[in-house]
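Retro notes, item 3 of 5
We never archived the inputs for the iron/sulfur cluster complex last cycle. Fixing that now. Sequence and ligand:
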Amino acid sequence: MLSGGAEKAAVSKVYRPKIFASLITEVVKPGKCVGCGACVAVCPPGVVKFKEVPGKDEQPILAGKCLLCEFCYYQCPMTAPEEKELEAMIFGRNSSEMEPFGIFMKAYSVKAVKDEILKVASDGGAVTAILAYGLSEGLLQGAAVAGVRKDMPWKPEAKLALTVEDLLEAAGTKYSVAPVFLALGEAVDGYSLEKVGFVGTPCQVRAVRKMQYGAHGAIKYGNRVKLTIGLFCSENFYYDTLIKEFVASKADLSKVTKFYIRAGKFVVEAGEEKVVDVKIKEVKSYARSNCEYCTDFAANLADISAGNVDSPKGWSTVIVRTEAGMKFLEGAVEKGWIEAKPLDIKPDGILVKLASRKRGKEEAK
Ligand SMILES: Cc1cc2nc3c(=O)[nH]c(=O)nc-3n(C[C@H](O)[C@H](O)[C@H](O)COP(=O)(O)OP(=O)(O)OC[C@H]3O[C@@H](n4cnc5c(N)ncnc54)[C@H](O)[C@@H]3O)c2cc1C
Ligand code: SF4
Ligand code: SF4
Ligand code: SF4
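Structure as it came back at the time:
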C-alpha cells in the first residue's frame, strides 16, 4: 500500500500521451499555431479538421474520436524537437554564431531561363524552375506548393502540382498561410507518390524535418519528400485582416497580380500599377501571432532556401544546404532551367542582418 504522497508521485509518473488536446493547450490557445496543416494531414482517422476562426484564418479542431496516437502533436512545428536538435540531426552539428542563416554549402543569385516562369514568379523564379526541372526529369512526381482559392481572391490553398503548368499557376508569393501539408497528404494518401517536392515557410520546413528525423516522425509522409525548399520569412499575415480588409480597401483584389516585400516596403501590384506601397510597419498589426515566437528567417533546415534579399531585382537568392539540394540546383543549370551566379553573402548584408535579428530572439529567450 502506497502512502498518500507516494501514491501522488506514482500517479504523476503515469505517461500522459501528447494528443490533440495537448496541441490545443500548448500551441493553438497560446496563439502559436502557424496554420501549416501538418496535424490535419497526418491524423490516421482523419478527425483533425480546419475551422475558419474570424480574424485568425483557419485553426485545427477535433471533429471525431481521437485514437490517442500522438501523431498530430509530434509533427507540429511548434512542439519538440526544436530547430537546434533537428539541425544537429540533419547536418551533424549546430550552426555557430558566425552562421546566422544556418549551415550551407553555397549561395547563388538565380534566375529562371524561361520567360513563362519569370512572368509569374515572385523574384527570379528559382523555386518554380527548380521544381519544374525535378518534375520534367522524373526526379519528382509532384510538388506540394501554395495555390490560391478560386472563390476567394489571393486566399492561399495547398496545391499538389503534378505538371509544370500546375507550378506556373502556383508561382508567386502569397502573404498568408497556405496549409501546404494538405497537399503532401494528397500526394501520399491520394496518389501514392514516392518522390515529392515541398515548398514552405521556415516553420513548415521544420515540420517536414520532424516527419523525417523526429523520434515520433510520420515517416510515411516525411520519407516521400525528396526536396525541401524553404522561403525566407520575416513574418506572415492573417488573410482576413491583411488581404480581405487592408488590401481590399485600397485595391480591387481580382485585379491584383503580385505582392512583395522589398526594402522595408509592402507592395501590391495590379499589372504595371502599384496599388499599395506602404512601409512594412503599416501592416505589422496584421502579422500572425505565432510569428512572434519565430527565430528562423532563412529556413535553416531546408535543402534549398530562397528569398530575394542581397540579390539584384529579378533574381532569387538561393542558399544550397544539402547534397540533395545541390543535385537539384546543378541539374537545373545543366538542363537549361536556371542561370546561377555564385553569391558572396556579405557580413553586413541584409540576409545576415535579418537572420541575426531573428536569431537574437532565440538568444534572448
Ligand atoms: C510569408 C512570406 C514572407 C516572405 N518574406 C521574405 C523576406 O522577408 N525576404 C525575402 O528575401 N524573401 C521573403 N519571402 C520569399 C520571397 O517572397 C519569394 O518566395 C522567394 O524570393 C522565391 O522567389 P522565386 O521567384 O524563386 O519563387 P517563385 O518561383 O515565385 O515560387 C514561389 C513558390 O513559393 C510558394 N509559395 C508562395 N507563397 C507561399 C506561402 N505563403 N506558403 C508556402 N508556399 C508559398 C509558391 O507556391 C511557389 O511554389 C517570403 C515568402 C513568404 C511566403
Ligand atoms: S488520432 Fe492521433 S493524430 Fe488524430 S487527433 Fe488523435 S492523437 Fe492526433
Ligand atoms: S501542426 Fe500546424 S496547424 Fe496543427 S497545431 Fe501545429 S502549427 Fe497548427
Ligand atoms: S515568421 Fe516564422 S512562424 Fe511566421 S510564417 Fe515565417 S517561418 Fe513561420
